Amino acid sequence: MSSAITCEDVRVSYGDLQVLRGVSFDIPAGQGVVLLGANGCGKSTLMRSLNGLEKLQSGRIRIHGDSLADASRVDLRRIRRCMGYVFQQFNLVPQLSAFQNVLLGAMGRHRLGLLSCLGLTASTEERARAMACLERVGMADRAQHRPSQLSGGQQQRVAIARMLMQAPKVVIADEPIASLDPKAGREVLDLLWRIVREEGLSMLCTLHQLDLAREYADRIIGMKAGRVEIDAAIADIDPLHLNTLYVGMTRVDAQPQEDAA
Amino acid sequence: MSESSRIPPRFRAPSALAWVLVVGFAAFFIQGLIASEISLDRLVRGASNLVRFIGQAVPPDFSRAPNIADAMLETLNIAIVGVTFGCLFSIPLALLSARNTAPNAVVRVLARFVISVSRTIPDLIWALIFVVTVGLGPLAGILAIIMDTIGFAARFYSERFEEVQKGPSEALTSTGAGRLSVIFGAILPESFASMTATSLFSVEKAIRSAVTLGLVGAGGIGVELSTAMRLFRYDQAAAIILVILVVVIVFEQISSSIRKRII
């Protein structure tokens, strides 16, 4: 089986602060991985690095074999195109309708970019596709609504539809349900994993709920203070071991003295 | 411990720089008062002149109403045409000068420079420059309004672009969209309401300055006004001023009611 995401000794720092301190793992195509870790342990930096939004200090990230580090701007866009990103804050354009937001997901696929994705100018096929994506996340009846008229869970559904519209091979979900209430969060997570499984996508998803992680994931990667601490298939995970991720020096900016005190 | 928990003093002596600024300002102010030779005598004479002016201006003489209407129309033409081009040119300039949309630092500094030059030179000076270069008439007025609008609108547009939340643009970037697509897909839609409000302000501003541009020969109702004043036809001047007042107020009302609706 080929690799979807490969990290080899990835290091990232902000000034003097070393955030990722040699992260390595390999996610085969079609695997669903949950990334766990306390706040400030470097999860988000890792997620952003995977999308080429952060510059690596050293190490290498490959997405389906393409290295991010030596990618030109055109290459980077091609790599990003096959990688869907689901954000904690949904990140829909607030002034545009749900339908238009979904259409924008197709921008990377077209040479003309935006021109092929405006409600006014998009081709009939793309418009039908966008509507199908909205139907799939159960938001077809809200196509004309603006994000502000939708609940958080509904906004995240629209964001998932936008990701679907992009037709990615890999999905990165950065705390997709952290700003939702438990019920809505559960529904969104159900939807997200169902779509990932149905489409046979690979996914790396950060979560804060250990029980949800164990329920959905094939495999769990646990990070602590910028390093991979746990990396095991779901069957081999010891729940008590997971708790150690949240104890002691978890943050990348923690001082040793603090820990001793 | 006692060292750090002392109550702060009631008064702290201002810094040396503050002293220099205050004394410098006071000196400049007093020198200004002396230089402009303000005296009670002059103020009294001025007041009686004002009464004479008003006496001659009332009742306003509307006999030249058709000419005034023509000139007013020309003023509005100058304002609308100038402000439209000004706002259109402002968008690319603002994109080039905003930190998050500029292609690189050199272009950004250059665009900022263009914008601040068009802002720092007042509209009347622009009008003088264009009267010299393209001749008397409305074209000089239009060009002056364009420059004046760019200085104002491009600056506010670019400030708005810089305030746009990062999330949506990042989301579009992460789909592999190009830079321009991200700008037109996320940044412009997010700024649209604020840009409309700024543009409406520009229209109000343009109408007010288009009125005065005629004073230096750049077309519009200002030409009529300065002629009336120079011929001491204060009653005609009063009619013109009344027309200006009404038109400016009407436009401000329209534009503020539109602004209320979009924000």
From TrEMBL, chain A:
It is a peripheral membrane protein. SMART domains: AAA. GO terms for cellular component: plasma membrane. The keyword Ribosomal protein does not apply. It holds the Pfam family ABC_tran. InterPro entries: AAA+_ATPase (IPR003593), ABC_transporter-like_ATP-bd (IPR003439), ABC_transporter-like_CS (IPR017871), ABC_transpr_PhnC (IPR012693), MetN_ABC_transporter-like (IPR050086), P-loop_NTPase (IPR027417). The keyword Transmembrane does not apply. Coiled coil: none annotated. It is found in: Cell membrane. It comes from the Bacteria. CDD domains: ABC_PhnC_transporter. Residues 5-250 form the ABC transporter domain. Keywords: ATP-binding, Cell membrane, Membrane, Nucleotide-binding, Translocase, Transport. GO terms for molecular function: ABC-type phosphonate transporter activity; ATP binding; ATP hydrolysis activity. Belongs to the ABC transporter superfamily. PANTHER family: AMINO ACID IMPORT ATP-BINDING PROTEIN, GLUTAMATE_ASPARTATE IMPORT ATP-BINDING PROTEIN GLTL. This is Phosphonate transport system ATP-binding protein. It comes from Roseicyclus mahoneyensis. The lineage of its organism: Bacteria, Pseudomonadati, Pseudomonadota, Alphaproteobacteria, Rhodobacterales.
UniProtKB/TrEMBL annotation, chain B:
It holds the Pfam family BPD_transp_1. Keywords: Cell membrane, Membrane, Transmembrane, Transmembrane helix, Transport. The keyword Secreted does not apply. Residues 72-255 form the ABC transmembrane type-1 domain. It comes from the Bacteria. InterPro entries: MetI-like (IPR000515), MetI-like_sf (IPR035906), PhnE/PtxC (IPR005769). Gene3D superfamilies: MetI-like (1.10.3720.10). It is found in: Cell membrane. It is a multi-pass membrane protein. One of its GO terms (cellular component) is plasma membrane. CDD domains: TM_PBP2 (cd06261). One of its GO terms (molecular function) is ABC-type phosphonate transporter activity. The chain crosses the membrane at residues 16-35, 76-98, 124-147, 182-203, 210-231, 237-254. Belongs to the binding-protein-dependent transport system permease family. NCBIfam families: PhnE (TIGR01097). This is Phosphonate transport system permease protein. It comes from Roseicyclus mahoneyensis. The lineage of its organism: Bacteria, Pseudomonadati, Pseudomonadota, Alphaproteobacteria, Rhodobacterales.
